[in-house]
Amino acid sequence: MSTDPGGTALRQAEIRRIRPEDAARMRALRLEMLADAPLAFLETIADAAARPHAEYAARVAYTSRGADTAQFVADTGGRFAGHAGGTVMPREPGVTVIYAVYVTPAWRGSGLLGELIDGVAAWSRACGRPELLLEVVVGNDRAYRAYQRLGFTDTGVRVPHPTIPALTELHMRRQA
To answer: One Pfam family for this entry, by name (predicted)?
Structure first.
C-alpha cells in the first residue's frame, strides 16, 4: 500500500512476482513504459508492439519462477502500476541487476518505486545475492535522485548505452 506524506492510505497495490496469466497486462505495461520513457529501455515501442503475444507469454512464464531472473509488478487489480525486474549477474554471483524499472505517472511519488525495489531485493536475498546493481542514463536526474533516496550510491562506473551510442549509463549499487 502506498501512503501520502501524512501517512494516510491512498491506494492499494500488491507487489508480487509476475505470474503466467499476467502476460496481457504485462504487454500493456511494457508498451506504456516504452511510450513514456523510450530511452530507458532496450527496445523500441514499434518492436515491442510487433512482438506476438506468445513471446510475451513465454517471457512472463519464464520470469515467474526460478532464481536466475524475476519480474515484479505492482498489481492494483486492473492495469499494472509498475514493474521492476532482477537478474543474476554471471560475473558477480552475489549481485542482482535490477532492470526495466517503471512506475506509471499517476503512481509516481507514492512510494511504489521503493516497494518494487524491495520486492526485487527480498527475492535477491532469498537467492543468496546480497547486493543490487542498476544502470541509469547519465542526465536522468529524476531517476538518479529517486535511487539515491532508496539507498543506491553512484559507483563512478560509466558504460556506453547498449543501443544508443550517444548516451552513457552510470552504475548504482546498494545492499539487497
So the answer is: Acetyltransf_1
CA 94, CA 88: separation in Å to the nearest integer?
Answer: 8
Strand order in the sheet with 168-175: 14-17, 69-75, 80-89, 92-103, 131-137, 168-175, 153-160
- Residue-range domain boundaries for the chain: 13-175
Grid cell locating 45: 515501442
pLDDT in tens, 45-102: 999 999 999 999 999 999 999 999 999 999 999 899 999 999 998 899 999 999 999 9
Q: What is the largest CA-CA distance in the chain?
A: 44
Alpha helices in 23-133 (DSSP H): 23-36, 45-50, 53-63, 112-126
Are the C-beta atoms of 169 and 126 separated by less than 8 Å?
Answer: no
| Superfamily for the 13-175 domain | Gcn5-related N-acetyltransferase (GNAT) (3.40.630.30)
Q: Give burial (CB, 10 Å; 0-12/13-18/19+) of 80.
A: buried
How far apart (Å, rounded) are the C-alpha atoms in residues 30 and 11?
Answer: 22
Residue with cell 497486462: 25
